[in-house]
Amino acid sequence: MMLKVEGLTKIFGGLRAVDNASLEVAEGRIVALIGPNGAGKTTLFASIAGFHPIDAGRVTFMGQDITGWPVHQIARRGMVRTFQITQPFAKLSVHENIAVGAYQKYADRSEAWEHARRVGEQVGMGALLEQPASDLTVAGRKRLELARTLATGPKMLLLDEVMAGLNPSEIVEIIAIIQKIRASGVTVLLIEHVMQAVMSLSEHIYVLSYGKMIAEGAPRAVVNNPAVIEAYLGHGAAERIAHPATSGAPEEAPHA
Ligand SMILES: Nc1ncnc2c1ncn2[C@@H]1O[C@H](COP(=O)(O)OP(=O)(O)OP(=O)(O)O)[C@@H](O)[C@H]1O
């Protein structure tokens, strides 16, 4: 297993944001982590990547126990995460922003610069390299965040909602980019609300709800799992969907 998370618990004050959650990601896979808003997905990512001290559990990455390691050491070992809210260096160009990531991999400046250019092209930003990051659209910023992390030369990427705020054609493009990244040998764990992307990209899905892992499996099995439907739509939803006529569900939603 490339990544193994066992019984991870993260408590904020009295809130068990992640509660005894476990997951595994095999090398070369694209695995998705889904769940309703506030389920604890980002907290789990941050905990895996060393951004929070955790309250219980163990994280093993490429055979090594990395629990409690600081962020930079985990990144150097090859696992990096993206952030939902991206904050590029606005005055720097796209190329310079990507190079910030590349300097972590290459000590030599010109090698880092060249690597940053290649990564920019890999994420479809070849024509935007000289632009200041402040000029980018939401989609451009998402790509830049992806490029910045990719430039560190990771073996595993944790992608946190890289499709949020994108239009349908931008989503199709970024799906293709993520597939190319995987084909280049990078293992991917992604948090995503865009189900079209989850279904077309991932081979395995984990579902988090109120901090607990409530389901896992192949995409189609997971989205048809009654526990998952209830987590998203509320208690009794699976029954209402399966038997709309007999379970007392209104034929039509009342008009507001
Ligand atoms: N630094 C923090 N301090 C206190 N509580 C936090 C902190 N970060 C997250 N939480 C709480 O932990 C819970 C899980 O939040 P988290 O952001 O991990 O959920 P999520 O599944 O990523 O949600 P979304 O899909 O909306 O991004 C929420 O109740 C949130 O308010």
From TrEMBL:
A Gene Ontology molecular function term of the record: ATP binding
SMART domains: AAA (SM00382)
Keyword presence, Nucleotide-binding: yes
Domain ABC transporter: 3-235
InterPro entries: AAA+_ATPase (IPR003593), ABC_AA/LPS_Transport (IPR051120), ABC_transporter-like_ATP-bd (IPR003439), BCA_ABC_TP_C (IPR032823), P-loop_NTPase (IPR027417)
This protein's UniProt keywords: ATP-binding, Cell membrane, Membrane, Nucleotide-binding, Transport
Stated name of the protein: ABC transporter ATP-binding protein
Protein species of origin: Variovorax humicola
